[in-house]
Amino acid sequence: MSTGKLVVGITGASGAIYAQRFLIHAARHYKEIFLILSDQALQVAHQELGVKLDRKSFTLKDWLGEDLPNIRLLDSRDYFTPPASGSFRHDGMVIVPCSMGTVGRIAHGISNDLLTRSADVCLKERRNLILVPREMPMNVIMLRNLTTLAEAGAQIIPACPAWYNRPGSLEELADTVVARILQNLGIEDPLQKQWMAEE
Ligand SMILES: Cc1cc2nc3c(=O)[nH]c(=O)nc-3n(C[C@H](O)[C@H](O)[C@H](O)COP(=O)(O)O)c2cc1C
Question: pTM score > 0.90 for this model?
Answer without folding.
Answer: yes
